Amino acid sequence: MDARQHFSALFGHLQAQIGGEEGFTLGYGAEVSSFIRFNQGQVRQAGQVQQVYATLSLYLGQRHAESKLALSGALDEDLPRLQQALQRLRDVLPTLSDDPYLRLNREAWRSELAGDAAPLDSTAMARQIIAAATGLDLVGFLAVGPQYQGFASSWGAFGWYAAHSFNFEFSLFHGNGQAVKSAYAGEQWDAQAFARKLQGARQQLEFLGRPAKALQPGAYRAYLTPAALEELVSLCCWGFGAQALASGGSPLQRLFSGKAELSSLVSMEERIEGGLAPAFTPEGPRQPLCLISQGRPGERLVSSRSAAEYELIANGACSGEYPLSLRMQGGELEEQGVLQRLGTGLYIGNLWYGNFSDLPAGRLTGMTRFATFWVEDGHIQAPVNTMRFDDSLFDFLGPNLEALTREPELLLPGATYGARQTGSMALPGALLSRFTLTL
Q: Where is the Metalloprotease TldD/E C-terminal domain (predicted)?
C-alpha cells in the first residue's frame, strides 16, 4: 500500500465513525528519506528513515481537541491506533471550554499534486560526490527521498502532496581549519550543476590559505550571497502575519504602517507553483500572495484564527502565518559580474546566529561565518576573520541596496529534527553600498 492509499484508508475509516454534530480533520505527513554523512570526501555514515505521522482533530460546536500519532504504515496496525485516539478525544471534549476564535473552513475543496520527477538515486549521487571531492577535505550531509503530506476533513476537503527532493549541504576545509560552506538542493540532481557548485567552493578555498585581513568596525560595501541573505530574510518572515502586524509586534511594522519603504528593487511573493510546499495547509488551499511590490507593502498572511479575531479574510496561511514558498524577484546583476560590480568591499558567503537587536526598527545582528573575503578592484584578496554585523533591513534592503542577481537560487530547509521540512525560498544575491560591522 502506497502512502496515498494509506492516507485515504485512514480518512475513510474516520468518515464511517463520525456522526451527529461531530466533525474532524486529519493531517498526514510521511517520508522515506536516505541520509548520508560525508567526512574527508568519503561516506562515513548512511541510513534510511521511513516514518508516518497523523494529526487527528475532533470538533463539536466551538470545542476542539487534537491528537498526534506515530504510525507504522501498516493499515491493520494503524486503524486501531486511530480509533483509540478518536475515543480519547471524545472523552476530553466535554471538559473543554468553547474557543471564541475557532473558524473552520467547511468548504469541500480538493488539491492534489504528485511530482512527476523520477525517483532520486542516493547511491549514484553519493558516488558522484565522492568522485568530485577527490583531493578535498569535504564534510557534508545529504538528505534525499520522497515526502508526502495530506489533509482531509469531514466536510469534504481533501489535499494530497508528494514530491521527491534532495538537499546536500557541504563544507570544504582548508588545512588551517577554515572552511567554505555551500549547498545544492532541488528536485532533480544535475551532475554538472553540482560540479559548478563544487568548483566555486574549491576556488574560494584557495584564498583561505592567505593571511586574514583585519577590519575595523564600520560600514563597508558588501555582496551577500543568496545563502547569506536567507539568514536575514528568514528572521523576518513571520512579520508578514496578520496577527504579528495587528498586535504591533512585527519587524515589518514600519513597512506595513506606511512609515518606511524598501528599495524599489525588492519584490517578494508567496507562491504556489514552483515552490516545494503543498498547495494547502490545515487552514485550506493556499493562495498566491504579493507580499512586497517594488518596496511597498502588499498582502499579509491570514490564518483562520486571525481572520476571526481581526475581522479579516483568511487566505490559507498556516497557523504560524509565515511564507512556505517565498520568492524574491531577481534583478539585472549577472552572477559572473558580482566581484567586478562590488569593486572593493566584502564578499559574504554565510551569516550565522542571526537575531534581532532592535525588533521595531527591523535591526538585525549576527556573525559572518565560513568564507567571508576582502575584495579589491574586483578580485578576492584575503579572508576576513569572523565579525559581528548589526544593520537594519530598512537600510540594507532600502537605500543601501544597489543590485540583485538575475536568477534567484532555490534554497531548501536543512532541518531534520523530527522530520525533513517542506517549503523553500528562492532568493537572489544582494549588492549593498554599505553593510555595518560592529565587532
A: 217-437
Tens digits of residue pLDDT in 159-172? 999 999 999 999 99
Query: Taking the C-alpha atoms of 248, 252, 258 and 262 in order, what is their torsion angle to the nearest 10 degrees?
Result: 170
Upper half-sphere CA count for residue 213 (Cβ side, 13 Å): 18
- The phi, psi pair for 372, rounded to 5°, reads -115, 130
Instruction: Supply 50's cell numbers.
Output: 521511513
**How far is the C-alpha of 144 from the C-alpha of 166, rounded, in Å?**
4
Q: Which residues of 78-116 are buried (b: 16+ CB within 10 A; e: fewer)?
A: beebbeebbeebeeebeeeeeeeeebbbeeebebebeee
Contact 335, 329 (CB under 8 A): no
Residues of the chain with CATH 3.30.2290.10: 3-207
pLDDT, one tens digit per residue, over 345-371 is 999 999 999 999 999 999 999 999 888
- Nine-digit cell string for 315: 487566505
- In degrees to the nearest 10, what's the CA dihedral of 146, 118, 7, 319? 50
- Measured CA to CA, the distance from residue 221 to residue 198 in angstroms comes to 26
Cell of residue 129, nine digits: 560526490
> Residues 6 or more apart from 426 whose CB is under 8 A from it?
274, 275, 326, 327, 328, 408, 409, 410, 411
Check: CB of residue 143 under 8 Å from CB of residue 95: no
- Give the angle 353-248-262 at the CA atoms, nearest 5°: 65
Residues with Cβ within 8 Å of 391's Cβ and at least 6 positions away in sequence, in order, are: 363, 364, 435, 436
Q: Could you tell me the pLDDT band of residue 116, with boundaries at 50, 70 and 90?
A: low
